[in-house]
Please model this.
Amino acid sequence: MQNQFQRSDYSELDNISLTALRIIYIFNMLLKSPCDDKEINQKLKEQIEDSRELSKDTICIYLHTLRLLGCAITRPTRTNNFKYVLLLHPFKFHITKKEMETLMELRKYVSSLCEWKTAVEIDDLFDTISAHLTPSTKKLFHSTQKSSLSREITSNTFFHDIKQLEKYCKQNKTLTLLYNSPESGEKNITLAAEKITMENGAFYIWGYNEDTETTMYLRLDRILDIKSVSLRKNKIKPKLFTVKYKLQGKSTCEVLSEEDFILEKKENEIIVESKVRNKFRFFQKILSYGNECTIIDPPELKEEITTKLKNMLRLYNDSGIEC
Model:
């Protein structure tokens, strides 16, 4: 038996919920700037996986729903560049402390799903809400945001445009980045961009570095500048190695990544095969399972992580701390 774990999406929503989600997204689009039918469809496809193309009549129905709720939205004409323009809306953001905390819990939940695009949408929504609050409520909102999301990295703190970075990834552009490394400080790193992910509350860009011949992943909030972007498109063939390991106990309930495949499943044990791109990240994951994980193959990797564990134990023993 072989199962592959995929990222969560909106495929489980019923038609009514999906329609409501589209209307909310369209309202959020118009809050930011006027849009035409093409732009609405394009942005919906960016936010909702496998979103179908909406007809002009369907978009009109959605906009009419917003009008029934009290929104004043112009019709596309030559004078407004054939775009829908949100003139005013009835939604006043008088939110309580408890409601603020609920919004922050929603943001943390999205982060736990590793859905970086949805997290960016919520960060944008928080900015929009903040802009419509009174000074005292805005201060409380920012204070709640800071305390509740202390372990989260929000996308509005980045030097760069995350959507532009995503385009570079789709084109496999080679980027030279000024990166603030926690170990070695500021330095230039060149990589062929592959993808953007979200893990443990932080955003990452993945890419292949020819100098080290490894796949790297860098935190977006540590990128200080994009020094250069190569005009040519790269064909990336990252080096992968296959690892087989066993999980027991509660770890068998962990949500695995898209690189992991279940080879065998028993009552309280699973055998997993993983395609590893970055050894450091893989070691972090394996160590997080504690004594419920055992590497089966390859032998050299098993020996390497055993050596690391022995070195860690030696450090604890030398410091006099009981393990």
Q: What stands out?
A: The mean pLDDT is 84. Residues 241-319 form a domain with the Alpha-Beta Plaits fold (CATH 3.30.70).
